[in-house]
TrEMBL record:
Organism ancestry: Eukaryota, Metazoa, Chordata, Craniata, Vertebrata
Keywords for this protein: Cell membrane, G-protein coupled receptor, Membrane, Olfaction, Receptor, Sensory transduction, Transducer, Transmembrane, Transmembrane helix
Domain of life (superkingdom): Eukaryota
Cellular localisation: Cell membrane
UniProt GO molecular function: G protein-coupled receptor activity; olfactory receptor activity
UniProt membrane topology term: Multi-pass membrane protein
Protein name per UniProt: Olfactory receptor
Transmembrane segments: 23-41, 80-102, 123-143, 155-173
Domain G-protein coupled receptors family 1 profile: 1-173
GO cellular component: plasma membrane
InterPro entries tied to this protein: GPCR_Rhodpsn_7TM (IPR017452), Olfact_rcpt (IPR000725), Olfactory_GPCR (IPR050516)
Chief location category: membrane
Length: 175
């Protein structure tokens, strides 16, 4: 979506060629394939962990931190590897979004009319708000200290970063 906004604002005359149906299919295929491979990586690493504290997860779905709470093995190195891959992927996506929006804001601030700037900002800010909500709650959910961990907080964070952004996504297009 950040790339779509970038092309629409910074290169509007090239929009049809840069975001043709073929380009959209390629981007969707890369997103689906990378998501599938990443999920396969996580699933494989988590299902090979022996559980010794039962198999009841106090979440809506099997979150990685909750599964690790149930494990009895010293899976420190495995978890560091998973976290490094996750951090690299998240940083790459975050960097792409930030660079896209920096370019967008530079282009928008060069628009001479107030009405044009307002229209461009109103097109970008809802997406940026949803991305910020997702990234901040996901970071807090995975990087919060164990001392403030509680079941209710974990459930609330899981809803905030997994349910709320997809629910808000259709409203982004109508704004």
């Amino acid at each position: 979506m950040a790339y779509d906004r970038y092309v629409a604002i910074c290169r509007p005359l090239h929009y049809g060629t840069l975001l043709s149906s073929r380009a959209c299919v390629k981007m969707a295929a890369v997103a689906w394939a990378s998501g599938f491979l990443y999920a396969l990586f996580h699933t494989g690493s988590k299902f090979s962990i022996p559980l010794c504290q039962g198999n009841v997860v106090e979440q809506f779905f099997c979150e990685i931190p909750q599964i690790l709470k149930l494990s009895c093995s010293g899976s420190y190195l495995r978890e560091v590897g998973v976290l490094m891959v996750t951090a690299c992927l998240m940083f790459g996506c975050f960097l792409f979004i930030v660079v896209s929006y920096v370019q967008i804001f530079r282009a928008v601030l060069r628009i001479p009319s107030e009405q044009g700037r307002h229209k461009a900002f109103s097109m970008c800010l809802p997406h940026l708000a949803v991305v910020s909500l997702f990234v901040s709650t996901a970071f807090f959910a995975y990087l919060k200290p164990p001392s403030i961990s509680s079941s209710a907080l974990d459930l609330m964070l899981a809803v905030l970063y997994s349910v709320v952004p997809p629910v808000l996504n259709p409203f982004i297009y109508t704004l």
